[in-house]
Amino acid sequence: MQKTDSSQMNFLEKQEYYLHLINELMSVRKRGEKPLAFIHTYGCQQNVADSEKIKGMLSSAGFDFVDAPDNADFILFNTCAVREHAEDRVFGNVGALKTLKRKHPQIMIALCGCMMEQKHIAERMYKSFPFVSLVFGTHSLQNFPQLFYDALFTGKRVYERDNDDKLIYEGIPIKRDGTFKGWLSIMYGCDNFCTYCIVPHVRGRERSRKRADIISEATEMINNGYKDITLLGQNVNSYGKGLDEKISFAELIGEIDKIPGDYWLRFMTSHPKDCSKELIDTIASSQHISKHIHLPFQSGSDRILKCMNRHYDRKKYLEIVNYAKAKIPGLSLTSDIIVGFPGETYEDFKQTLSLIKEVEFTSLFTFIYSPRVGTPAAKMDDPIPAEEKSKWFRELLDVQEEIASKRCASMVGNKEKILVESVNAKTGELQCRSSGNIIVECEGDKSLIGTFQNAEIIKARHWILKGKIV
Description:
Elements: H1 5-29, E1 36-41, H2 45-60, E2 64-65, E3 74-79, H3 84-95, H4 98-103, E4 108-113, H5 119-128, E5 134-136, H6 144-154, E6 158-160, E7 181-185, E8 187-188, H7 199-203, E9 207-208, H8 211-223, E10 228-232, H9 249-257, E11 264-268, H10 277-284, E12 292-294, H11 302-308, H12 314-327, E13 332-339, H13 346-359, E14 363-368, H14 386-409, E15 415-423, E16 430-434, E17 439-442, E18 452-461, E19 464-469
Parallel strand pairs: 1-2, 1-3, 3-4, 4-5, 5-6, 7-10, 10-11, 12-13, 13-14, 17-19
Antiparallel strand pairs: 8-9, 15-16, 15-18, 16-17, 18-19
């Protein structure tokens, strides 16, 4: 569900007014010529996209941005709740700001994101970090100007979470981090409730943006020179839920593909249960959609997949993969894997290894299971010791490294279209990326950054290629 045009306008005008008031208040609180903000983002691409909206609002309030907190007037951590390690880093980094706050009391420190939607985390923040002035969850992003103003004006701590009105707010200003690579959110939330995952609890239920709003934003990005655009959603290929109009993700991405320009179109993250043949056919016949699919399978064991509440089995996953390989020559497949899910045995784990060997993924994002408070899996028996899980993890990495090396070696001699992304500070080489999301290192001038080039692959090194621009 989305706000009506009139109420949307009233809401935006209200938030713009608060941004104006923030600008006035910061004129006497800033330490330099302009108020400065430091934003640090943890976690997924959706968090990055959220931070870009916060930066857009701060920019409208007169802020510039710095890469370190020392000189900032406003410090914000956008947090991730998916794994315990990310949470521990947040607590450590927030604690380290205590000295800076004591030295410069006028600095405002804020926390937002997925961690802040968890009641036990928000309460810990309130008790343990009294120098944090503002805390808000994922459902309060659109209220950021008002919350920021309230904390500034009253001098009191402002905490807001559990504010899910199930609406989508269009028109929030965006200050993108990149000039040629960008994120485009098409939906929010998740309805899957995998037993290990906290996302539906902190991001809410699925809701999709209107087709016209997405097409408009995509067109604007392409016209502004964006070369690599990634469509985002917690379950991107279930797009369309809750909309008045009937539209599938395959139809949406097919429409975007028709926008004129020289660009690549990517998407993530896909759920195997919603990856349709229609979507694969659309990718196969497209001009701009990357020949790369990120399709997390998490485990090769049907027993574990059922415990995870994944709604597909090994056979179904392989049917999707084999259909995609047949339809899209040179397809690059990547995936996510959880090692050591509660109750997993070594026999279950070996089924994961065999699936990896059968599919031959380009690369994998692999994680040892991390219990999340509030999820069903956190209450399951987990008898396998951490040391044993670490051995399995190492074994998986060794298998994938061998597959990636073999795959990259097979690409030597190929001609690839690449996007030049950056310069390696150590080697001076250009860091580039192929349509299949494989890193290609080339000699060349930094003036090529942000452009498409053609390269001949001359050498392979595990999962990285060496190329020569031709």
